[in-house]
Amino acid sequence: MGRGKNFLKMERLKLRYYPDAVLRKKAEKIKNFDAEIRSLAQEMISVMQEAKGVGLAGNQVGKLKRIVVIGIIPEILEEPLVLLNPEIKKMEGSLVEEEGCLSFPGVSASVRRHLMVRANFRNLAGEKMQIDAKGTLARIIQHEMDHLNGVLYPDRLSFFARKKLLRDYRQKRKTVSLTAEKKI
User: Which residue ranges of the chain lie beneath pLDDT 50?
Assistant: First the structure.
């Protein structure tokens, strides 16, 4: 039976949650800067905004492509930013701050990150770009680029802090699952 033209349309992207195996995979470099990648970027921005996130990497929606979207940050970014094939070229300083992740809803932890980063990337037209980021934006770029390499923020914690975060996360997931089952 035919499914029509819409069959080839991109399925609605869904957030992937730990322990989904796609979160541990390394994303592949983007070679074609075409309508498909622009559509993926727009869809990722929508998913990120709906989830009230500040950043999202391809892995987090099941796409193993080196794409990062970053949301509006008052006084820093006036519109969402899309980084294709990002690479950090320079890092300075460090700061420990609280960090969360859309793939680990309901938990957060203090993570050490570089205070400033310089990243090279391609924009949606495939043009080479560079960004010097500090503070919150630098933190988001590092966090999302970790995702592209299969690294999750609990990996950056001490053994005991990671163990506690994962225990808290599993407990929250169990509570959410039980609550959802009771409503059915």
Answer: 1-8, 179-184
Task: List the catalytic residues.
Answer: 144
Residue 39: Cβ within 10 Å count: 12
The domain 11-95+114-156 is placed in CATH, from the list 3.40.50.1110, 3.90.45.10, 3.40.1050.10, 3.40.50.150, at 3.90.45.10
Distance CA 175, CA 184 (A): 15
The amino acid that residue 138 corresponds to is A
Tokens in use for 21? 């195996």
Residue 154 marked ligand-binding: no
Q: Is 142 annotated as a binding residue?
A: no
Structure token digits, residue 25: 């995979």
Burial of 4-24, coded b for 16+ CB within 10 Å and e otherwise, reads eeeeeeeeebebbebeeebbe
What is the reported pTM? 0.89
Nearest to 77 by CA among 134, 146, 147: 134
114 annotated among ligand-binding-site residues = no
